[in-house]
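Q: Got a minute? One more chain.
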Amino acid sequence: MITIEALKTRAKYLQKIRGYFDNLGVLEVDTPLGYTHAVSDPYINTFAIATKSGKRFLQTSPEYAMKRLLAEGSGSIYQICKAFRDDPQGKLHNYEFTMLEWYRVGIDHHQLMKEIADLIYLLKPGAVIEYTRYQEIFQRYIGVNPHKASLKTLQKLVDQHIGRIVGLDFPDKFNCLDLLFTHCIEPQLKNDDRFLFIYHYPKAQSALARIIDENEQKVAARFELFYQGIELGNGYYELTDANELQQRFQNDLKARNQQKNMHIEIDKTLIKATQSLPDCAGVAIGLDRLLLCIANYQRIADILFCV
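A: Always. Here it is, folded:
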């Protein structure tokens, strides 16, 4: 149960965060919690709600709505809001949590990581922040180049390091990489008191990030932020190709269907807006988790009022 002292600590950090963005000249926005479309990601579970205006979905992130604002010419924006994901409650997850999401026009993912680092230093002076490529950490613990390894090689590595996964007899490249990362790499980070940016993920895990060239191979301009093995944030140098976005959404729907997840419709309004999306980078950070790590709490319920 959260204490009054923790509520005061939380309020202090929120004030600093808003001051940080005010100094950057980034506009605070507020988008609907009930959005017209669910996120396409096949690994995120959404709450559907019925309203007199039709079916709505409690946002798992304000990403879709914020990108529509960007396409309308909002300029750089940020939002502190509630997000909802239908996953089991636990030490680090509550079905309703707080998201800090922002988009910076005219910068790439490297510059955005620097901005996130500046915010962390503001909230936790003396913090240690490191950066490493996904390929480097994958080769360190798994022993192969994740960008060039064949599906057969990755499947053998899953069998070797993890074993057979019930209900997933023939994991695709995305699943192999995800399993190897969560089971073999994340545990190695649990005693690491650094804030660690891992960047340039494999193409198979590009989500809504653009694909770029690096060292004669294609990589996703995507990063994640970790602290003691806890995933805190996920960011992209944003995809601005509407046709590519349409294809990725269709691929997501196929994966959702294979997993027998809730059927969703593609957000065509977002696809159309992507045609006008400015060159930008964006990140979504689990704010409760970030504050938990910064203020040295143990559970999300220590820093978030949960019921």
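A: The first strand starts at residue 27 and ends at 28.
Q: Perfect, thanks.
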